[in-house]
Design brief:
312 residues; alpha/beta; Arginase, Chain A; eight-stranded parallel sheet; 10 helices; globular
């Protein structure tokens, strides 16, 4: 049997993201695949804590060559699975956020770019805190049904509806270089929509997405983030739940998987510094299809990050 895990049958061995080598210290990697099994920030339906494990399992279906670009990401970048954030207490949200930041700070110091599987969307704020600089806040391409710019909920600011408000207030996310794509669904308050708009974020509601089409959305996203450091955050509830039912806050009328793939492919050449795919909740999809979708979106983003590595 080959020493290369990709040379073994897909159903064999210890599952890592995309069957990459397990590299817990992250040293020598260009791209670090990581898991954050946490859903303490969920406001309703839990289960995203199980997302990284199922995505790892289903990512064994991932192949090595992108069928459109013909890019071989594992040939042009050193990619490994650095494991999960080792929490000591998931019942203390502030401590949990600190532990996520500490984990990704260690990875960041190695020079590797993180590509993360969540977990709920609250995890993005502490990841950003680890990789962003106060001197040069990052921009963001954000795919989601929700803006995630609400204030405290039930006495806590660390919930999955507020990471990007926290990031802006911390000075690590530049709202004027942030585009939010696929936003939709009725709300009990317009606080999040208003915060995004008033802070300077470009919000593309699903109705506009449908009207102008994917290519125009790509052009607008590229215009907004420009040539500065940029993070991609992909919430699977940005997709229509027919494609990704296994998520905590589904909203009908969303993006299709082929539209999402085209959107991500259109982001090639940006100054990417990291990315995540979040909100996969396996208990709500017994088929595992949502995890396959998430693993595929991770591969699309991996190709973008690998292309970035190859052009440095």
């Amino acid at each position: 049997m080959s020493d290369d895990p990709k040379g073994a049958p897909r159903y064999m061995g210890i599952p890592t993201f995309m069957r990459t080598p397990y590299t817990p210290d992250g040293k020598g990697l260009d791209i670090a695949l990581a898991g954050v099994p946490y859903d303490g920030g969920v406001t309703n339906r839990p289960g995203a804590r199980h997302g990284p494990r199922q995505i790892r399992d289903l990512s064994s279906l991932t192949r090595s060559i992108h069928h459109v670009s013909k890019l071989k990401p594992f040939d042009v970048a050193r990619v490994g699975d650095v494991g999960d954030v080792p929490f000591t207490s998931v019942y203390d949200p502030e401590k949990t956020m600190d532990e996520i930041t500490d984990f990704f700070s260690t990875i960041h110091k190695t020079g590797a770019m993180p590509l993360t599987a969540g977990g709920d969307h609250s995890i993005t704020f502490p990841i950003m805190r680890a990789i962003a600089s106060l001197k040069k806040p990052i921009g963001m391409v954000h795919v989601d049904a929700h803006t995630d710019t609400w204030g405290p909920f039930q006495g806590s600011k660390f919930h999955h509806g507020g990471p990007f408000r926290l990031a802006v207030e911390a000075g690590i996310l530049d709202p004027k270089r942030t585009v939010q794509i696929g936003i939709r669904g009725a709300q009990n308050t317009d606080e999040g929509w208003n915060y995004s708009r008033d802070s300077g974020m470009r919000v593309i509601f699903m109705e506009e997405f449908t009207e102008i089409g994917v290519q125009a959305v790509i052009a607008e996203a590229r215009r907004v983030v420009g040539d500065g450091p940029t993070y991609i955050s992909f919430d699977v509830d940005g997709l229509d739940p027919i494609y990704a039912p296994g998520t905590g806050t589904p909203e009908i009328g969303g993006i299709t998987t082929i539209e999402a793939q085209a959107l991500l492919r259109g982001l090639g050449g940006l100054d990417l510094v990291g990315a995540d795919v979040v909100e996969v909740s396996p208990p709500f999809d017994q088929t595992g299809n949502t995890a396959i979708v998430a693993a595929t979106m991770m591969f699309e983003i991996l190709c973008l990050l690998a292309e970035r590595v190859s052009t440095r």
